């Protein structure tokens, strides 16, 4: 909890950047900035430019940075390592934890090796695809994983470049779509079931698991359009799953957060199969906060105020108790 005798820290909300998710980032950052101002913080909204370093290092009181950058620049850990180098406090996971988590091929491997449910996957670099040709690789992937498959960039967010593949004929095009966003594609076995997102708020030794959000896109796939087009996806909070499945999902989410070393506001994406077993898909270190995003829905269902939660994490960054 925030110490009552510690003044509210000034905050720099970092949003925008040059990734394909720039618009989503700006919308997320604006919502967090509004929420923090409402609870009394002095807030500056900034983009990733040359003005950032003097902004966060000048003056007697350094602000706390709240990274809301989506995509590689904001989620691959590099920015947070720079902030640490400058001695600037920030909300959220460390650079190392972000680097591991953002790469789906690495995060999936780390989580699977810890004994948790992860769909079998293969990481395929573009160079290998180009040099060896599509035909032998498509045949091998189909034999190894079967169809349908999910194909997605190893390092990208908001489901950009992600495709469900029903047959071998569609696989080359799906790989090309993934390579448009990252040099490595992840091809994984498709798990049929109920897609849910679980938000975990990590502050020091405290863990708060929010109600699971069930995702029902009209198109059947929770792609970029389904995520950010109002009315294109139905969200059910709490998810309509039985108590055993909910407990398993919450336990898996906590285990993922611990294994990956994540802090702050974390969203863990899962799919629950027909037997009630949850499978880890990915984790998000800077989840969206737009009007159609999942974390604000979970907070509302839990009776939490976005501004108060974010303020608590900001103050924890000041005192060093956030991680």
From TrEMBL:
* Compartment(s): Cytoplasm
The similarity annotation says: Belongs to the D-alanine--D-alanine ligase family.
Enzyme type, top EC level: ligase
Gene that produces this protein:
ddl
Q: Which InterPro entries match?
A: ATP-grasp, ATP_grasp_subdomain_1, D_ala_D_ala, Dala_Dala_lig_C, PreATP-grasp_dom_sf
Gene Ontology molecular function, alphabetical: D-alanine-D-alanine ligase activity
Which keywords accompany this UniProt record?
A: ATP-binding, Cell shape, Cell wall biogenesis/degradation, Cytoplasm, Ligase, Nucleotide-binding, Peptidoglycan synthesis
What Gene3D superfamilies does the annotation carry? 3.40.50.20, ATP-grasp fold, A domain, ATP-grasp fold, B domain
For this protein, the Enzyme Commission number is 6.3.2.4
Please identify the protein, giving its name as recorded. D-alanine--D-alanine ligase
Q: Where is the ATP-grasp domain?
A: 108-315
- Enumerate the PANTHER family for this protein: D-ALANINE--D-ALANINE LIGASE, D-ALANINE--D-ALANINE LIGASE B
Q: What does this protein do?
A: Cell wall formation.
């Amino acid at each position: 909890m925030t110490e009552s005798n510690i003044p509210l820290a000034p905050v720099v909300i970092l949003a925008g950047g040059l990734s394909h998710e720039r618009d989503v980032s700006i919308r997320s950052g604006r919502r967090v900035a509004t929420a923090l101002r409402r609870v009394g913080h002095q807030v500056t909204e900034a983009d990733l430019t040359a003005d950032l370093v003097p902004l966060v290092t000048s003056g007697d009181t350094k602000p706390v940075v709240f990274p809301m950058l989506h995509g590689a620049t904001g989620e691959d850990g590099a920015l947070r390592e720079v902030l640490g180098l400058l001695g600037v406090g920030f909300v959220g996971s460390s650079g190392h934890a972000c680097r591991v988590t953002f790469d789906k091929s690495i995060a999936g491997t780390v989580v699977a090796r810890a004994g948790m449910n992860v769909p079998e996957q293969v990481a395929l670099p573009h160079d290998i695809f180009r040099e060896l040709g599509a035909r032998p690789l498509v045949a091998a992937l189909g034999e190894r994983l079967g169809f349908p498959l999910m194909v997605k960039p190893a390092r990208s967010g908001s489901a950009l470049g992600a495709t469900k593949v029903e047959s071998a004929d569609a696989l080359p095009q799906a790989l090309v779509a993934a390579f448009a966003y990252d040099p490595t594609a992840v091809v994984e076995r498709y798990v049929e079931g109920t897609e849910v997102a679980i938000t975990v708020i990590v502050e020091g030794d405290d863990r708060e698991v929010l109600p699971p959000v069930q995702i029902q896109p009209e198109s059947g796939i929770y792609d970029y359009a389904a995520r950010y087009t109002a009315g294109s996806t139905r969200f059910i909070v709490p998810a309509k799953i039985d108590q055993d499945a909910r407990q398993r999902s919450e336990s898996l989410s906590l285990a993922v957060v611990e294994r990956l070393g994540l802090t702050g506001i974390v969203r863990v994406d899962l799919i629950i199969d027909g037997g009630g077993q949850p499978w880890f898909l990915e984790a998000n270190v800077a989840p969206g906060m737009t009007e159609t995003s999942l974390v604000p829905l979970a907070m509302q269902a839990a009776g939490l105020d976005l501004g108060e939660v974010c303020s608590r994490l900001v103050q924890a960054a000041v005192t060093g108790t956030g991680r």
